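Narrative of accomplishments. A recurring question from our advisory board has been how the design workflow behaves on a single, concrete structure rather than in aggregate. To address it, we present the structure tokens for one chain from the evaluation set, followed by the sequence designed for it. No filtering or post-editing was applied between the two.
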């Protein structure tokens, strides 16, 4: 029997996928969330949910700046 891809996904990702209508948008959002999590060495995308709101805001700003600088190089 084939394993369903949804068995490995967290609840937050399943909800996210349900509400983002465009497959391309969903793909891009997941790509950038994954890159953000990798940049900060998080165990999963869900780990983002445990940041203090001000800490998260700062990390997002820093990551956006970092990403833009990488593109310019």
């Amino acid at each position: 029997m084939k394993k369903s891809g949804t068995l490995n996904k967290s609840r937050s990702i399943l909800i996210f996928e349900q509400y983002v209508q465009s497959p391309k948008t969903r793909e891009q959002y997941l790509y950038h969330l994954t890159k953000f999590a990798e940049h900060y060495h998080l165990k999963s995308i869900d780990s983002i949910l445990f940041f203090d709101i001000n800490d998260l805001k700062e990390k997002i700003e820093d990551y956006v700046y970092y990403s833009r600088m990488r593109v310019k190089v």
